[in-house]
Amino acid sequence: MTCIPKKEILQKMIETDILIIGAGPTGLFAVFEAGLLKLKCHIIDGLPQPGGQLTELYPKKPIFDIPGFPSVLAGDLVNNLMEQIKQFQPGFTLNEVAETIEKQEDGSFIVTTNKGTQHHAKAIAIAGGLGSFEPRKPILKDLEFYEIEDRGVEYFVKDPEKFRGKKVVISGGGDSALDWSVFLADVASEVTLVHRRNEFRGALDSVEKVQELKKAGKIRLITPGEVIGFKGNERITSVDIEINGARTNVECDYFIPLFGLTPKLGPIAHWGLEIEKNAIKVNNALDYQTNIPGIYAIGDVNTYPGKLKLILCGFHEATLMCQSVYQMMNPGKKFVMKYTTVSGIDGFDGSRKEAEKAVVKSIE
Ligand SMILES: Cc1cc2nc3c(=O)[nH]c(=O)nc-3n(C[C@H](O)[C@H](O)[C@H](O)COP(=O)(O)OP(=O)(O)OC[C@H]3O[C@@H](n4cnc5c(N)ncnc54)[C@H](O)[C@@H]3O)c2cc1C
User: Fold this and answer.
1) What's the CA gap between 184 and 165, in Å, rounded?
2) CA 169 to CA 236: how far, in whole Å?
3) How many Å apart are CA 26 and CA 300, to the nearest integer?
4) pLDDT tier at 7, thresholds 50, 70, 90
5) Is residue 314's pLDDT more than 50?
6) Taking burial as the number of CB atoms within 10 A of a residue's CB, which of 55, 95, 286, 358 is the most buried?
7) What is the β-pairing status of strands 118-126 and 109-113?
8) What is the three-class DSSP state of 305?
9) Rounded CA gap, 353 and 335, in Å?
10) What residue owns the CA closest to ligand 1's atom 3?
11) How far is the CA of 129 from the centre of ligand 1 (A)?
12) Three-state secondary structure call for residue 9
């Protein structure tokens, strides 16, 4: 990490108190805790939507160990967290990976993404979970050629409109492959779902929807089958599929392999932080700060003795991190912790949600 003088800070820059890297549950809840302390947050995430593992890996699975929720779907928990932080108006830089960090002379930081967006913050909270997710790719000849410059191979459905009226082949047997096949059946002109087994590893209702759409002629299902090659010069025009040793060819504009995502700590691994077994070492006795003052690591991304990679642990770590940033930004200022039931919540939009006052006992 380099240290550059503050005067070199560029003009067009996103300014914030805490820059949170990772929009998983930990990063989202950190916005709420920071908001209670009147600290402004901005979040960067490499994925196109917030929610981290919950949205990307298991949105329809119920979670049973969130205090106060006997059961909550992962996707609903993310929606609730987004609703809870709306009042604090966090900024989002989505679909961009935090790549480099520069410490300024005044102790603040500039973080630049892979797309060149710059963020200037007084403190950094890395809530990067297991790291930035990278798609698992099939081993296919010429894949590198077709996966760039809109030549036909896509690993994410970032904008479903891109596939409107197009012929799409989706490959995979999990929730993503099932859910996008169902969704795109109403958008694309043709959807073919190819999976190398007859059984799918997805939510039952998604499997049933695919079956219904197959019967209605809106999805062509090829199982057990495997995409083994491409045809097309400038871009894909069709894929070759092997079915029980035989070969067939299916015309398509897009091939979307959805084989899951592998997490990698990614660029953060080169920021000079102390790393142990692919996780960032933090001071858990105090505030989850890393070996670089002003940079914190919270949630699944950190490690310390007794660490548990659970959502509720991330919430706790986010809370203590915010208190520490508050102290750092207001040295010497006495902080009096107040319950939200007593203090209410001041939204950044100026709205004040008062805690209801009730007389429980009259004073004689
Ligand atoms: C199938 C499954 C079931 C689970 N069930 C439970 C359960 O029942 N209860 C429970 O408590 N936990 C459960 N977990 C674990 C739980 O999902 C994690 O503890 C939780 O997601 C951690 O949240 P996080 O915000 O720390 O990280 P994550 O959810 O991993 O989010 C991190 C985010 O950071 C982003 N990111 C990383 N690096 C960068 C970068 N350089 N630039 C930009 N963005 C970046 C990633 O894209 C990601 O969106 C489960 C996990 C799985 C896989």
Assistant:
1) 10
2) 11
3) 8
4) very low
5) yes
6) 55
7) antiparallel
8) coil
9) 21
10) 58
11) 5
12) coil
